[in-house]
Every structure is written in C-alpha cells, then in structure tokens.
Amino acid sequence: MSTIYRIKQSYDQLTETEVRIADFILAQPNQIVESSSADLAHLTSTSPSAWNRFARKLGYSGIRDLKIALARSEQVKNDPANILEANESVTSLIQKEGQLVEQSLQGTLSLLNQSDLDQAITWLDQAQRIYMVGVGGSSVVVTDFLHKLTRMGKQVIHNPDHHILLAQFAHINQDDVLLAVSYSGMTNTVTVAADQAKAKGAKIIAVTGFHLNSYLAKLADCSLYIPAKEGNIRLGAIQSRFASLIITDILYYGLVTRHLDETKASLLASREIVNNIK
Description:
The chain is of the alpha/beta class. It has 14 helices and 5 strands. The chain has helices spanning about 5-10, 15-25, 30-35, 35-45, 50-55, 65-70, 90-110, 115-125, 135-150, 160-170, 190-200, 215-220, 240-260, 260-275; strands at about 130-135, 155, 175-180, 205-210, 220-225.
C-alpha cells in the first residue's frame, strides 16, 4: 500500500502536529528515509515520539517501519482537479470523467494489499453462505457482486429491504462470511449488520474508504480500502462506486480462477435458463 497515498487520504483527520509531519513527508519523502528521528523532529518542530505516534496512527509499528515503507513505495503524483463548473461543455465533462476514472483506478490499486485480497478470496471460497450489505451507491456494488456469485452457484444472502436483511442476520454463524461495503465505514445499517456478524463469529470483509475513524474497518477481519475522497463536489457515489466495483471484480476473478472449469459450466447453465425468457 502506498505510504504517500495513505497519508493523503488521512490528511483531513490529522492533528496540527501530525499535519506538520505529513506536510514534510509529502514535500520531501526522500529526506525522511535518510534522516534520523532526532533530525526529523528538529526539522518539523516536533519530537521523535510525535513521529512514532504519527506512524502508528497510519498503521505502522513506528518511525522505522514508516521509513522502510516510504523507501519501498513510489511517490504518488498530485491528483487532478475534478471540480464541476456551471455550464461546462460536453467535451470538458468527458475529459473530467476520464480523469475521475483514472484517478479512482490508480488510487484503488495503490491502496490494495495483495495478501488481504488473497485472504478475502479464500474466505469467500470456503464460506457456507455469503452475506452482503451495502446502502445507497454501495448497494449497486453489492447487487452486481450478488449477480456474479449467484451465477457461480454461491449461496448469497442479501435483500434491498434493510429490515428483512437484518432479520436474516439472526441466522449468520461462524461458517459464513459478511461482505460489507460502505464508503464512510459508518453507515448505520452496515455497522449493525457487522456487529451481528462479529457477535456470531462470522468473518467480516470490508470494502471501505481509508478513514482513520472508520468503525467498519476497525470491526472487520479484512479491510480492502478504496480512496476516501471524492472531490469538492460529491454529487453521488461516483468514484467510490467505481473503486468498490474494481475490488469486487478482483474478488470475483479470484474465485473464478480457483474453480475455472466448474465456473464455466455454471455460467453456461445459468445463461441457458435466462435465455428461456428472451
């Protein structure tokens, strides 16, 4: 996972001292690797302990772990501005949509952890039943993934009626897996479902924005992160929806490749049945 990108996604949630450290890293990432903790503290008017707290807040064990991650990662370029203006031309809108898609793709791939993805695929593959929950734009992602897994022959539990869905969670158990999709990680229906899954011993896979205060991410057994900023004007779940679909598509590909011949047969069988109503 890109350290620079992780810092950018967490920036708005940092304290004043942490912002000074973050600004220094973003401006001079190479110097971080080459400087001692004492030098870094002096250059930012902070302290070595403040640097260690900052590193731990981002998920590292300390400043040494942060420096190693910085040394291994590539610096992420500044994101393009994607601010809508009044009466923009169609040409401009097409260009900005291209920027949004590219930004979302690169940001999502930068945040993905391959071992977490592999673990999530294994849990989905071995699950007795796969429960899914997502609200608003996230429900589009869940419905798309539901369609794919159903055609594979997976037992999937989902319902667009939240009351019915949560009632179904009374039967979730340790042999099941919950896939929860929430950009904020704080959506009430999603967190209630996750709490129930946790209490019953089910594994929780979260597709969520990289927010330091995400309740869902803290509760999940495996978190697959998407970029946590949609721009100055959030007209809807545009980038987050696309980013979440990237992740669920990768999960789907992983499941397919583990049972390629069986999946091909299942897809053909489901297509033949659907063709009967055309």
